[in-house]
């Protein structure tokens, strides 16, 4: 069955299957009768007609951008002086990643591995966040305005871009109603999952390529041009690979669940389309393998690669009860109400609230005869179950009853995924479901009469009322400790050679990253904030690195846990450690809140009298390292 949309494009009804429904090309419009040249208007109406077609899209894009600015508004008041959201360490790491990307572009360095963090061992960037493509694109902003500005811009555009990408795909290829597509895109971008991940996870909210990857996978099964479609899909996958490997994996898993659902409900059609799909995917695989061979090697076998995610996977799992709770950043939520039901304020990927769950169940029941809804039901159910973790958990305490994720938890890649993030697939499927539901309600209103037109209107009002409680609230902010002028002014360049290490005191991972980010990764720093292996012989994943003895000593002094007395062994160890770090200088800023005077006494004893440079005390340790 076909239907004409408001833009004149022909769409296939969802009853024809998700493959056909999602991939109908624009049909040519009716042929215009010839017009005598003398009768033609002085100006062509093409431009006004094009503007009329674009106005709804521009309005939708403006609303999505306004929503994104609403969520991130508090950060824009002072990008360099505030940290946005509840995960400042995650933000600090991602700012450093953007700073390093700008440094790698301007110095032509390796974008997949660096020794500028965790000096001298380095950090494997592929086993961490990556973000090479966004870092490259944002490099001009980072170099001109700093990493905090680029980070805030990235977080904001992710929400707006993800919403518009889903709207564009839905309105052109699945539903006739732009209003329904707008609601679907709004949910996909501003549901609790993406808003909560805006607390420091831009690689998770960067989902603007996902709808187009999904569309191309569906087209592979429908079209008879596997080479062309496979190549287009391949380039999309390569691009997503360099944005977020984790989102790429979840997208692939969602596509697999979609195909399995179609196989269950339409086995003959699914098997008939399998050869074209597999042929196109083979082309895609060849392209991706060629373009990503080196980063894939770096991911799974390169220096400082890791295996698995640190700790018990259930630490980051959701509970069944979390699906009917409201998220911290929802208007119906609160600061503490959601915390017992999920890992933290960032991983609240399932907190839809009872109203959305009821709405989803009602939509599935009403449209259960449509194959697209059946397939979406399979995708939503399986991905939601996977997010529960290895054991079934209904309340806030875990049980000992095994859950399906236990069957795959030890498989490669599955063992590195944060379990709660499987619910991101559920969120995308819900957004598509709500778009389809809105489209069907719109058709009823247009074709019905009298009371038949009133029912869909009431249903639409009820649906919107169910979605209101999960509208997002602005993310919280907190002040950040200012980076010393010694770093921001560039004065450090007179004391630290390129590629050498500057050691901030106390030696803390985040302090190192903030200083390095402010210098656009111009100098190496010890420690850091990253995922790496336990040791050179054990690739099991862990957070950070075991601090050097001198780092532990200085931290203890700053906390008042030991006095300022140091002996010959401490001095020898301190000079050995700066040699290990390949350090040129050790810096103690004026802004250290605790133990400043004690730290200066200890550093003088370890490295000799320091010198005053701008707003730091500086110790030249080159005599001990070369």
Helices and strands in order, then pairings?
Layout: E1 2-4, E2 10-12, H1 18-21, H2 46-76, E3 82-84, H3 88-107, E4 113-114, E5 123-124, H4 132-137, H5 139-145, H6 147-173, H7 178-190, H8 192-197, H9 202-205, H10 210-222, H11 226-241, H12 245-265, H13 267-291, H14 293-301, H15 353-366, H16 371-386, H17 423-447, H18 451-467, E6 477-479, H19 485-488, E7 501-504, H20 509-518, E8 531-533, E9 541-543, H21 549-558, H22 568-581, E10 583-589, H23 596-607, E11 611-613, E12 616-620, H24 622-625
Parallel strand pairs: 7-10
Antiparallel strand pairs: 1-2, 3-6, 4-5, 8-9, 10-12, 11-12
Helix pairs in contact: 2-6, 2-7, 3-5, 3-6, 3-20, 5-6, 6-7, 6-10, 7-17, 10-11, 10-12, 10-13, 11-13, 12-13, 12-16, 15-18, 16-17, 17-18
Instruction: Give start-end ranges of low-pLDDT stretches.
Output: 1-10, 12-35
Q: What about the largest sheet?
A: 4 strands, mixed
Classify the secondary structure makeup into a structural class. Answer: alpha+beta
**How would you describe the shape?**
elongated
Distance N terminus to C terminus? 78 Å
- What is the overall pLDDT average? 88
Q: What integer value in Å does the Rg equal? A: 27 Å
Q: Name the strands of the widest sheet in spatial order.
A: 7-10-12-11
Q: Helix proportion of residues, in percent? A: 40-55%
Put simply, the count of helices is 24
Number of strands: 12
Oligomer: single chain
């Amino acid at each position: 069955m076909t239907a004409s949309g408001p833009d004149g494009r022909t769409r296939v009804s969802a009853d024809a299957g998700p493959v056909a429904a999602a991939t109908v090309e624009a049909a040519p419009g009716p042929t215009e009768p010839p017009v005598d040249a003398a009768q033609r208007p002085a100006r062509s109406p093409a431009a006004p007609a094009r503007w009329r077609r674009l106005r709804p899209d521009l309005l939708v894009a403006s609303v999505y951008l306004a929503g994104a600015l609403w969520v991130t508004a508090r950060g824009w008041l002072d990008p360099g002086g505030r940290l946005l959201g509840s995960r400042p360490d995650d933000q600090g790491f991602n700012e450093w990643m953007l700073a390093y990307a700008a440094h790698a572009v301007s110095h032509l360095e390796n974008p997949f591995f660096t020794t500028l963090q965790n000096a001298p061992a380095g950090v494997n960037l592929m086993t961490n966040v990556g973000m090479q493509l966004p870092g490259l694109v944002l490099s001009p902003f980072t170099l001109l305005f700093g990493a905090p500005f680029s980070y805030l811009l990235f977080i904001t555009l992710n929400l707006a871009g993800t919403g518009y990408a889903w709207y564009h795909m839905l309105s052109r290829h699945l539903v006739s109603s732009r209003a329904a597509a707008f609601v679907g895109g709004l949910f996909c971008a501003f549901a609790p999952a993406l808003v909560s991940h805006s607390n420091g996870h831009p690689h998770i909210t960067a989902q603007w390529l996902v709808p187009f990857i999904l569309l191309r996978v569906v087209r592979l099964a429908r079209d008879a041009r596997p080479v062309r479609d496979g190549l287009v899909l391949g380039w999309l996958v390569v691009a997503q690979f360099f944005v977020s490997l984790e989102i790429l994996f979840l997208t692939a898993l969602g596509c697999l669940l979609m195909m399995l659902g179609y196989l269950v409900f339409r086995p003959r059609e699914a098997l008939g389309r399998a050869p074209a799909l597999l042929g196109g995917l083979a082309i895609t695989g060849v392209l991706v393998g060629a373009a990503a061979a080196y980063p894939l090697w770096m991911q799974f076998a390169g220096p400082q690669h890791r295996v698995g995610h640190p700790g018990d996977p259930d630490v980051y799992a959701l509970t069944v009860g979390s699906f009917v709770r409201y998220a911290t950043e929802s208007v119906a939520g609160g600061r503490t109400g959601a915390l017992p039901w999920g890992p933290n304020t960032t991983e609240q990927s399932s907190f839809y609230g009872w109203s959305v769950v009821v709405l989803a169940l009602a939509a599935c029941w009403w449209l259960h005869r449509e194959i697209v809804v059946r397939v979406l039901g399979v995708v939503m159910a399986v991905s939601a179950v996977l997010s529960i973790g290895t054991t079934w958990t209904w309340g806030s305490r875990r049980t000992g009853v095994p859950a399906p994720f236990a069957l795959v938890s030890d498989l490669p890649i599955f063992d590195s995924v944060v379990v709660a993030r499987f619910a991101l697939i559920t969120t995308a499927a819900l957004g598509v479901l709500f778009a389809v539901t809105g489209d069907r309600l719109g058709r009823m209103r247009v074709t019905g009469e009298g009371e038949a037109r009133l029912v869909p209107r009431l249903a639409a009002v009820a649906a919107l009322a169910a979605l209101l409680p999960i509208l997002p609230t602005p993310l919280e902010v907190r002040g950040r400790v200012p980076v010393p002028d010694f770093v921001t002014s560039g004065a450090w360049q007179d004391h630290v050679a390129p590629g050498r290490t500057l050691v901030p005191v106390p030696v803390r991972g985040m302090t190192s990253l903030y200083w390095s980010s402010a210098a656009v990764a111009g100098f190496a720093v010890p420690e850091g904030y990253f995922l790496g292996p336990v040791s050179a012989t054990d690739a099991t994943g862990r957070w950070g690195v075991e601090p050097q003895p001198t780092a532990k000593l200085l931290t203890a002094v700053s906390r008042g846990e030991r006095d300022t007395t140091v002996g010959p062994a401490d001095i020898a160890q301190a000079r050995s450690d700066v040699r290990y770090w390949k350090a040129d200088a050790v810096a103690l800023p004026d802004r250290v809140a605790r133990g400043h005077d004690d730290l200066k006494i200890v550093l003088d004893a370890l490295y000799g009298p320091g010198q005053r440079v701008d707003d730091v005390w500086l110790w030249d340790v080159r005599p001990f390292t070369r």
